[in-house]
Design a protein that fits this description.
By secondary structure, the protein is α/β, with parallel strands linked by helices. β24, α14 and β25 form a beta-alpha-beta unit. The protein binds one RNA strand through β8, β12, α7, β13 and α10.
Length: 886
RNA sequence: GGACGGCUAGCUCAGUUGGUUAGAGCGCUACGUUGACAUCGUAGAGGUCACAAGUUCAAAUCUUGUGUCGUCCACCA
């Protein structure tokens, strides 16, 4: 009857085979639960095809797999949909770096050849990523895999673009945008990063006859100044406001108007700002308000434009040097100060950003739309999280505090620049011919149309991800009744999705944009819940990076400790929205836990005829021992606790409960007890407990549980079902009310107390002793469980149980909950006296505390009665124990 | 400048309506190998819950302030 498992669990022997088996079984596809009423959908945040997955991805896969497996086992029509993101700029930049090392550039290669190269790179990355996802055990439905740049997703992108274009939401215009001179592309506001650095602040006048000294860190841009702005309250400059001066600035003629703007800080520099409309966002706005001329100084390569005399053609840096030199020659510089400044950098290549005016495509986030009752897409997106839209409950962000962050960002959102000048991405679906412009989902008829060269911000396509992935082919997507239709069963079945699980670092980049794009396009929310995880850091709390050499690669950990242990290290100890430190040591300790489960199972399978046993009806409760009933009740409450924690995204707490049960309850107590107790119900009880435990563990550690399961059931997979919570309730009531858990706890405490007494008295572990117990009214309970008291490492060979009796002088003595025990013939007088002294001191301290509490009239009067009574009860119990000890 | 978060045992962190002597894992100390497991077992040490004031019969928990570390947003010419 015994079944043999290996002595320890060697993960890598089994994992790949098990994964293949799952894939073949069809359980990763929602059709397996097709009769289910409710569906449960998560779309995988598509990893960028820029390389390989890291620990952060591993965490994401683990959290989502837990949710997916849990809901699948609970008979939801469950879909976890995989895909990858072309990640426009990121991928192009990466490939550009590679070909640079090969001595060429994208301009030398030409658009089509370069794009072929990028596609090849993306394909290789994709294959690696898919393989890594499988290694992590992710139960993704690969039959539905999507890509942000495939044909179907392109149709979605073009369709939404056209809708927005027709609604006047997408507009083309010349504005100052963030320009990366290296990428040769625009960047959205949130793609700009800031780095602190020291910069020189130059104080000077444009010319000798100009009355105001200005201060700037970018003297070269002053070639394009058309105004000086001062604070209207600033008495120093009040009289100049409105006047215009013609100046000769280092050899160039400028017309400078003095304007007032309340945003100017009087304390900074001289309180006077040289306004350069073409190369500063703020200045551009002032220019609009004051009808100032815009002079472009810096071109898209970061060099000075034609028409600036000796400066033309110089790089910004060179021009700065020359301007400063000329100012010095003219003795116009008053002082140079070193200040802390924030340098704007491109988030992809760290090149300093050059703000400049450029003809680009924007989404107008503030335009009021009739189809949304006069609300803007921004307002709809705020409402979706605040109160709910389109008849849906409000979107719930976990942890809740990020909702505030979301509102703050959304309310301050400015128009979104969606066009990029890179090649890799969705090309803007707009064509020009002579003076005509055509925007359409497919190219226009006729000759001579030229397509707009710009491509779209990568977040435009990923913003459509929850619904675009539910189309199977381009023709599934069409515009109907002013909204986007996805005409598939998948869309009808699986949208909106239940939860979007992702890192808090892309709340704005992605989550917010999905809400904007989805509510606009399909008039529905993309997801009901947002679960945000933290970043995975190294053991010192630093970001992992190759240059620091502190990277822990999941693919190194998996062969070493197993996928299950790697997953646990990401699931236990993590709190929503909070960063998680991880170390190899931690993963190792979870390997030990997995092995413990393996060995408990191994023992149980060796010693009992275990079969899959999902309900309690085969167990004759009357024939159960106390420990049997105890472990059953613990198993049932574990089922409830774990289910509730997972539903509430409390992955860590659920994991800790499972660990505590497995190690501290099942292995340390019940299995030990079962070695000595004779009970006709042992096999049934063990079958039920093991069946339930393996299932409850399965979402966390799918591999090891599935392997052990194979020994229990040859016909089905563990992946199939979750232990029922409701069936248990009725069964459980039958014996839960009798205080099983308190009774067993008492036995545990007596045993621990005896072990403790032996240990403190330095009694040799191998020394057998006689014990006498005065059990009082608990005599039946103690007698019933005398076998446990004798067997569980108490070293008792002869046990006498009486209701009460005389004090026995000179022997080890202990008392707990009114029950007294003596260990005969093992004493070390000194040690025992010391131990009892300690215990007495402790009790006296406790009694003192409770007394002072009860003496406090205010407490007795104000506190709820049950709390006061509990204190009183405790007091008398402690007093009794104290007397006995004395 | 604005906001948010952390500060609990040597380390990593739980602690969800304020109510037993504040918990877990790892580490540490002592002892132990009886056939599931040394990837193990038993026992133990270890905390003024960052600080201060307040509310309350009662505060790790609520309020205010301070310190400190970290993050995000805005951006300074």
């Amino acid at each position: 009857m015994s079944k043999e498992l290996a002595k320890s669990y060697e993960a890598k022997k089994y994992e790949d085979e098990i994964y293949k088996h799952w894939e073949k079984s069809g359980f990763f596809q929602p059709e397996i639960n097709k009769n289910a009423e409710k569906s449960y959908t998560i779309v995988l945040p598509p990893p960028n095809v820029t390389g390989t997955l890291h620990m952060g991805h591993a965490g994401m896969l683990a959290y989502e797999d837990v949710l997916t497996r849990f809901h699948r086992m609970n008979n939801f029509k469950t879909l976890w949909l995989p895909g990858t993101d072309h990640a426009a700029i990121a991928t192009q930049t990466k490939v550009e770096k590679i070909i640079k090392e090969e001595g060429t550039s994208r301009h030398e290669m030409g658009r089509e050849k370069f794009l072929d190269r990028v596609r090849q790179f993306a394909q290789d990355s994709h294959d690696t990523i898919v393989n890594q996802c499988k290694k992590m055990g992710s139960s993704l439905d690969w039959s539905r895999e999507a890509y942000t740049l495939d044909e179907t997703r392109e149709r979605a992108v073009n369709s939404v673009f056209k809708m927005m274009y027709d609604d006047g939401l997408i507009i083309r215009g010349e504005r100052v945008i963030n320009w990366c001179p290296r990428c040769h592309s625009t960047l959205a506001d949130d793609e700009v990063e800031y780095k602190e650095n020291k910069t020189k602040l130059y104080y000077f006048k444009y010319s000798k006859d100009f009355p105001i000294t200005i201060a700037t860190t970018r003297p070269e841009t002053k070639l394009g100044d058309t105004a000086v702005a001062v604070n209207p309250k600033d008495d120093r400059y009040k009289d100049f406001i409105g006047k215009t001066f013609e100046v000769d600035f280092v050899g160039l003629k400028l017309n400078i108007k003095i304007i007032a703007d309340r945003h100017i800080e009087m304390d900074f520099g001289t309180g006077a700002l040289g306004v350069t409309p073409a190369h500063s966002m703020v200045d551009w706005q002032m220019a609009e308000e004051n009808n100032l001329e815009t002079i472009k100084v810096i071109n898209e390569d970061g060099n000075i434009h034609e028409g600036f005399g000796e400066y033309s053609g110089l790089s910004a840096k060179e021009a700065q040097k020359k301007v400063v030199e000329n100012l010095e020659k003219a003795k116009l510089i008053e002082k140079v100060e070193e200040i802390d400044n924030n340098l704007s950098l491109c988030y992809r290549c760290d090149t300093p950003i050059e703000p400049l005016p450029s003809l680009q495509w924007f989404i107008d986030v503030n335009k009021k739309l009739d189809k949304f009752d006069g609300k803007s897409i921004k307002e709809i997106s705020v409402q979706a999280v605040k109160t709910g839209v389109f008849g849906r409950e409000k979107i719930n962000i976990v942890p809740n505090r990020f909702e505030k962050t979301y509102f703050n960002w959304m309310e301050n959102l400015r128009d979104w620049c969606i066009s990029r000048q890179i090649w890799f991405g969705h090309q803007v679906p707009v064509w020009y011919k002579d003076n005509e412009t055509y925007c359409g989902i497919t190219p226009p008829e006729g000759d001579g149309w030229i397509r707009d060269e710009a491509t779209l911000d990568t977040w435009f396509s990923s913003g459509l991800w929850t619904f675009s992935t539910l189309a199977q082919k381009p023709d599934d997507i069409r515009i109907e009744n002013d909204k986007l239709m996805i005409d598939t069963d998948d869309f009808r079945n699986f949208h909106p999705t239940q939860v979007l699980e992702t890192g808090y670092d892309i709340l704005f980049f992605w989550v917010a944009r999905m809400i904007i794009m989805t509510t606009y396009a399909i008039k529905d929310i993309p997801f009901q819940d947002v679960y945000l995880h933290g970043l995975i850091l190294d053991d010192k709390g630093k970001k992992m990076s190759k240059s620091k050499g502190n990277v822990i690669d999941p693919l190194d950990m998996i062969p070493k400790y197993g996928t299950d242990a790697t997953r646990l290290s990401l699931l236990i100890g993590c709190t929503p929205g909070t960063d998680l430190k991880i170390s190899e040591e931690k993963i190792e300790s979870f390997r030990n836990l997995v092995n413990k489960l393996w060995n408990v199972s191994r023992y149980i399978l060796q010693n009992a005829n275990i079969k899959s046993q999902n309900n309690l009806s085969n167990i004759k409760i009357k024939e159960c021992t106390l420990s049997d009933k105890w472990i059953l009740s613990e198993t049932i409450s574990l089922t409830k606790t774990v289910s509730n924690y997972i539903r509430g995204y409390q992955f860590s707490l659920a994991g800790e409960e499972l660990r505590d049960f497995t190690w501290n309850k099942l292995a340390d107590w019940y299995v030990e007890a079962s070695k000595f107790e004779n009970s006709s119900q042992k096999e049934e009880v063990l079958s039920f407990v093991l069946t339930t435990l393996l299932k409850l563990w399965h979402p966390y550690i799918p591999f090891v549980t599935e392997i052990i399961w194979k020994e229990i059931s040859d016909t089905d997979l563990i992946i199939e079902s979750w232990p029922s919570e409701t069936d248990f309730n009725n069964e459980w009531v039958k014996f839960s009310e009798k205080g099983i858990s308190e009774q067993f706890k008492l036995i545990q405490e007596i045993i621990e107390s005896i072990r403790n007494a032996r240990s403190e008295n330095k009694v040799e572990p191998s020394k057998k002793v006689k014990a006498i117990i005065y059990a009082g009214d608990k005599i039946d309970l103690i007698k019933e469980n005398n076998i446990l008291l004798k067997s569980l490492r108490t070293g008792i060979e002869d046990l006498e149980i009486k209701e009460n009796g005389e004090k026995i002088e000179g022997e080890i003595h202990g008392s707990i909950e009114g029950i007294e025990f003596y260990l005969i013939g093992a004493i070390d007088q000194e040690k025992e006296a010391e131990r009892i002294k300690k215990e007495i001191a402790n009790l006296e301290k406790m009694i003192e505390m409770i007394k002072s509490k009860l003496d406090n009239k205010a407490f007795v009067e104000n506190a709820p009665e049950e709390i006061v009574n509990a204190e009183k009860e405790k007091l008398s119990k402690y007093k009794e124990e104290l007397n006995k000890l004395k």
